[in-house]
Design goal:
Length: 330
């Protein structure tokens, strides 16, 4: 594998801009950009001095100079772009939610394996140093057994049924947009994937999930609760309860600090690790290491593709229970 990997970004939104800025901080730059609206790609390329702008998105997949594509388009477009990218030999990092459902993900995992390519979701939680540090502390046994995780994620979106958050045509809804973070955090700390899941849902007028509550438990009898809302602000906070302490994580998913409170005497320990502003930097570093690795075990350790699969399976099962489908699934 060559030393300097060429990144292309598909999309020109907030994450694409952050990606361009991250590479600049690393002394690199994006090689290429593509967007469904060509004019936006041209403006984006001028802003970041990007060498290659494609007249047609499909040209990105055919460009032999592209090593990794970061797909940042709406998640109901991911499947078609992922399939084309993998078919033409490109490693891909894909914004959450990686696909609409586990059936789509199954197909893409099989294709990536066939082509011997890295397919990963850009899930911040799997790369931020604070979560890795907490797992080291948990593994040491000093906190005791994990019993319960409580996770809140609520944002206030204007009650405008034409925006993407409430649009069925753009795969809107709380579960795929913000619930994926909550479930990924739970999967990160759970010893095993949940095997029992129950939920409640409140629908927006468009038919997508506006608000949801989820209960989860695995065979190790670790339990978790999730509350999600697209129209009611909540603090981005997670609490992990152990036999000997509880851990509060603030401003997840891009957290950089956690507080451990010990049950016996109430003393606190503050864990600082990483920097919120470097969230995408950690993802890029791990992805480049994965692409350069010949070891499937190392790739899994870096990118946690099994966790991505587990979370997508949970979300797909929940939506199946709700009977909520997107147009692509009907």
């Amino acid at each position: 594998m060559k030393d300097n990997l060429n990144w292309a970004v598909l999309g020109t939104g907030v994450i694409a801009n952050e990606m361009a800025q991250t590479l600049q901080k690393m002394g690199k730059k994006l090689y290429a950009v593509g967007n469904r609206t060509h004019a936006k790609a041209v403006v984006f390329a001028e802003k970041y001095s990007i060498e290659m702008v494609y007249d047609c998105i499909d040209d990105m997949f055919l460009d032999e100079n592209v090593d990794i594509i970061y797909i940042t388009s709406p998640h109901n477009t991911h499947f078609q772009f992922m399939e084309k990218a993998l078919t033409h030999g490109k490693h891909i990092l894909v914004e959450k939610s990686i696909t609409l459902n586990s059936r789509e993900l199954d197909e893409m995992i099989a294709l990536a394996a066939e082509k011997k390519l890295v397919l990963a979701e850009a899930m911040t939680i799997y790369h931020m140093p604070v979560y890795k540090k907490l797992n080291e502390i948990i593994a040491s046994g000093q906190l005791g057994r994990l019993n319960l995780i409580q996770v809140n994620f609520g944002s206030y979106k204007d009650y405008n049924m034409t925006n993407r958050f409430f649009s069925r045509k753009l795969a809107g809804g709380a579960l795929l947009d913000i619930g994926v973070y909550s479930l990924s955090l739970i999967r990160w700390f759970f010893k095993e994937t949940p095997t029992q899941v129950s939920s409640q849902v409140k629908y927006a007028p468009t038919g997508v999930d506006e608000q949801a509550g989820i209960l989860l438990m695995n065979d190790a009898v670790e339990m978790a609760t999730v509350t999600l809302s697209l129209h009611s602000k909540q603090p981005k906070r997670a609490t992990l309860s152990f036999d000997k302490a509880y851990v509060e994580i603030f401003e997840y998913p891009r957290g950089m600090q956690a507080t451990i409170t010990y049950t016996e005497d109430g003393h606190k320990e503050v864990i600082d690790a990483g920097d919120t502003s470097d969230a995408l930097y950690y993802e890029v570093c791990d992805m480049e290491k994965a692409v350069s690795s010949a070891s499937s075990d190392e790739i899994e350790t870096l990118m946690h593709c099994q966790y991505t699969y587990d979370v997508m399976k949970i979300m797909s099962d929940i939506r199946a229970e709700w009977g909520m489908k997107y147009p692509e699934e009907e």
